[in-house]
Specification:
Rossmann fold; seven-stranded mixed sheet; four-stranded antiparallel sheet; 17 strands
């Protein structure tokens, strides 16, 4: 018998992404399926915000897959293997990897090995630098497979078209989007600032009883993808607006439009838009402010929320500070949940 995470089939991709990110999978067994549930083998039980249960199952054992380092052991020198980065982000059928300069001559070999190892991957891209500019975009080189930047991702019961080069999208935030959706009550009016290709909007509209979800996105390419994603999922209670939140929200405030919940998924500079968020908040509005903070310094994110409230002569109550992913060694993406009083 093997300890498994039991999850609804509609949540399979979200739960799988979380287990991969946290390194919780137990190798050597096939996944189990029964009725509307999937069973993932795990090394141990754990606490999370996922909608899951733990159950012992009799799973079929399979030979352990060789890792990337093992597959390349006879093709790279010992020194080269030390520089090999085995982690990658998988966005739909696209694998995104980083290659050290010391392995530049071997990057095609590395990419083709990844393609051979994982049949679900049809494109391997290499990051060029980091996320840049106001829109947090990143460029890539195609190393192997189909030379494309577009793919379909499945997350939290929705299908979304994503172009990894023209819109910012984080597959690692799928669990966080599920957490936010689980908090939304029937009839809520929800605002998503910096909505991108509308992952928050789609997940919320598909999985909650929200009355209406409004998304605002500056990036025209991201907005167009968002519109496609609404069509893909046949969502009728979402309104997407292309524009700068600093221009759009004052106009909504002038019309006395307010929201029950405001989501601000822009960790680098989200706190700079708190004035606009408070302009469309009301008593009882819950705001989710994202930030990057060092380990042990998460309270600094709450301090930014408090400073924004003070500047706008508002009283707030901090509900929670949640780590929602690791940005870099000892630096985390955190979310401050707070309510306007």
């Amino acid at each position: 018998m093997v300890l498994c995470v039991k999850a609804a089939l509609k949540d399979a991709e979200t739960v799988k992404a979380y287990l991969l990110e946290q390194g919780l999978f137990l190798d050597g067994y096939k996944y189990g399926k029964e009725d509307k549930y999937i069973y993932f083998p795990v090394a141990q039980s754990f606490e999370s915000d996922l909608t899951i249960a733990f159950e012992d199952r009799d799973l079929e054992a399979v030979p352990k897959k060789e890792g990337l380092k093992e597959l390349l052991a006879d093709k790279l020198s010992a020194e080269e293997l030390e520089h090999l980065k085995t982690s990658m982000d998988q966005v739909g059928s696209i694998a995104i990897i980083e290659v050290d300069e010391e392995l530049k001559d071997k990057e095609q070999l590395i990419a083709s090995t990844i393609l051979e190892r994982n049949k679900a991957i049809t494109t391997v891209l290499k990051k060029q630098g980091g996320h840049e500019g106001e829109l947090r975009l990143q460029t890539y080189d195609c190393l192997a497979g189909e030379d494309t930047r577009e793919t379909i991702v499945v997350e939290n019961g929705v299908r979304m078209k994503i172009n990894v080069e023209t819109v910012y999208y984080s597959v690692r935030s799928a669990t966080e989007r599920k957490r936010i959706a689980s908090m939304i009550k029937d009839g809520e009016e929800v605002l998503v600032m910096f909505s991108g290709a509308a992952p928050y909007c789609c997940v919320i509209a598909k999985n909650t009883g929200a009355r209406e979800v409004v998304g605002i996105e500056l990036n025209e390419a991201g907005h167009e993808l968002g519109m496609e994603n609404l069509h893909l999922n046949k969502l009728k209670n979402v309104v997407l607006i292309q524009g700068d939140v600093k221009d759009v929200l004052p106009k909504l405030a002038q019309k006395d439009i307010g929201f029950d919940r405001i989501i601000m998924p822009l960790p680098h500079t989200g706190h700079d838009f708190l004035d606009e968020a408070f302009s469309v908040a009301k008593k009882g509005t819950t705001i989710h402010l994202y930030d990057f903070e060092a380990e042990g310094e998460f309270e600094k994110a709450a301090d930014k929320a408090k400073a924004g409230a003070k500047r706008n002569k508002q009283e707030i109550k901090i509900l929670d500070i949640v780590a929602s992913g690791q940005h870099s060694p000892r630096t985390f993406r955190v979310c401050v949940d707070f309510v306007v009083e």
